[in-house]
Write a structure and sequence with these properties.
The chain is 72% helix and 0% strand. By secondary structure, the protein is mostly helical. 27% of the residues are buried.
């Protein structure tokens, strides 16, 4: 805030409440996540495989910056947040599922597989970031990648 020439009080005056600040930050993160997902959905020969490999990489796990997925980062907090944050979270989870379903095909099976994939991706990343054992963290990511890639081998 010093670099921006703001005091703590001056900064917080821009928001009606702490929840408003959180909702604004979450909306920004959710929009960024959507653009990242779209990049993989549109720019890769095998978008699902590319997404799985990036999402469950050590690089993504360790990234403290903007590339960090807000779905995984907020998975423990979203349920306790206000309705605005939860609505934004729900929308980005829905978009995540719908985009992966599009990568996997069409129809009910694609939606089912995408929902399972999102759950596996988010849960694995959250666990890998949370454990204090590097080998266990690598194992979680490696095995989740293997499982998802096995269920959905790269398209020919």
């Amino acid at each position: 805030m010093q670099a921006a020439g703001l005091t703590h009080g001056g900064f917080y005056k821009h928001f009606g409440s702490r929840d408003d600040l959180i909702a604004e930050a979450a909306d920004h993160a959710f929009a960024y996540a959507g653009r990242t997902l779209d990049r993989y959905a549109n720019d890769e020969p095998d978008p699902f495989a590319a997404w799985v490999d990036w999402y469950l990489s050590e690089e993504h796990r360790d990234d403290p910056g903007a590339e960090r997925c807000p779905v995984a980062a907020l998975v423990g907090d979203a349920g306790r947040a206000d309705d605005g944050v939860r609505a934004g979270y729900s929308a980005v989870v829905e978009r995540f599922i719908a985009t992966l379903a599009g990568m996997l095909g069409s129809g009910e099976d694609a939606r089912l597989e995408a929902t399972i994939a999102v759950s596996t991706l988010v849960g694995s990343l959250a666990l890998a970031r949370s454990v204090d054992d590097d080998e266990l963290s690598h194992e979680i990511l490696r095995n989740a990648r293997k499982a998802l890639r096995h269920q959905h081998p790269p398209s020919e």
